[in-house]
Amino acid sequence: MFERIKPGFVELSELASAGAGGKVVFSTDDFFATCENMISDSEPVFIEDKYTEFGKWMDGWETRRKRVAGHDWCILKLATKCIIKGFLVDTAFFTGNYAPKYSIQAACLTPEEESLLPRRIEAIGTASSEDDLEQIEKLESDKWEEIVPITALQPGYEETRHNYQKVLSDEAWTHIRVNMFPDGGIARLRVFGEPRPERPALTDIVDLVSVVNGGCCVGFSNAHFGHPKNIIKPGKGRAMSDGWETARRLDRPNIIEANADGTLKLQGNEWAVFKLGFPGTIKKICVDTTHFKGNFPDSVKFEGVYLDLCNWTESKEIPWQTILNSSKLSANKEHWYKVESEIITHLRVTIAPDGGLSRIKIFGLVENSEY
To answer: CA-to-CA distance for 297 and 258, rounded, in angstroms?
Structure first.
């Protein structure tokens, strides 16, 4: 089976998918398949005999064959303001109907500018109205900064479907405009980057590790079935594949015994380290094992540290301070813990011996300091 080497930027937070909080705010045409499909969290699929009243059903964004002047394009609102480091444009299953070329522009919109966007209604067989086009022209999105020039796409066969594009800009953006030249289909779009949200009010209790508040995964021991960056996405996990799941550890004892507190006597564990969006103090933790019924970890432990302006690396000796001692977990539910931490910038989550988590939420207060 063909497998293309992935660029390093795919390890960064993904900030356009629906699960991350991205959304479609405008599209010129949704005739065969709506633009929302392009930011779906699931992998694209092909159903050979599935048709709609408008034509072949496709799992992506597909516009009609253009018979008027112009080209198709859409505007996406990203999950949070961010520096974009790269894109994946996936043309899966679009083999005779993929968009031949594309480009991407970006902008950082104010609330006043966002108010100029026409109301979005998701429906196949539709196109933007003359009123919508007149309204959207006020944004002058065609003049936004071009961060990906016009670039050829490859057809959606397994060996050519993944079109990766590195971005060199260090500006932070809230919205992107995806241009198709001139029309056609794109199965999925993924936007990878570094969150740069606005600082919350000091009195607000916020999820300090959430990707929409600037949290990101900076290291992990094992991500065999699912990356730990998934567990800091907003909302509930949609499936096991939308969480962090490790391989089964091979150093498990032949016969497992229990400690007095109910946790298991195990040698090994798996861990993930997260950088918080802002330094803060933690007041409450939620560990969600939803969907993990026969593969949840036995226990979980939380530690934190303040690293000032230093970046975490696995090779450094880090003076981790315990926030939550090893605590027994159970299947398919949320576990809530009240805690009190010092000011921290980084969080280490350790699961024993292995398994999967759907989400973690780390509620606390932002510290009044530059970081």
So the answer is: 14
- Beta carbons within 8 Å of 243's beta carbon, 6+ residues apart: 226, 230, 231, 237, 291, 292, 356, 357, 358, 359
Exposed/middle/buried for residue 264 (C-beta within 10 Å: 0-12, 13-18, 19+): middle
Tokens describing residue 280: 């803060």
Contact at 8 Å (CB) between 44 and 38? no
Give the whole-angstrom CA distance, residue 332 versus residue 168.
Answer: 41
pLDDT per residue as tens digits for the range 33-69: 999 999 999 999 999 999 999 999 999 999 999 999 9
Average pLDDT over residues 278-307: 97
Which pLDDT score, from 0 to 100, does residue 88 have? 98
What distance in Å separates the CA atoms of residue 294 and residue 87, rounded to the nearest whole number?
Answer: 35
- Rounded distance between C-alpha atoms, residue 197 and residue 158, angstroms: 36
Nearest to 287 by CA among 237, 212, 340: 237
Contact by Cβ (8 Å): 230, 242 = yes
The two tokens of residue 120 are 């979005």
Residue type, 208: L
26 strand-pairing partners:
75
> Amino acid letter at 37?
N
**3-state class of 16 per DSSP?**
coil
Instruction: Please report, as a single letter, which amino acid is at residue 69.
Output: A
Pairing status of strand 188-195 against strand 73-90: antiparallel
The values of phi and psi at residue 229, to 5°, are -65, -20
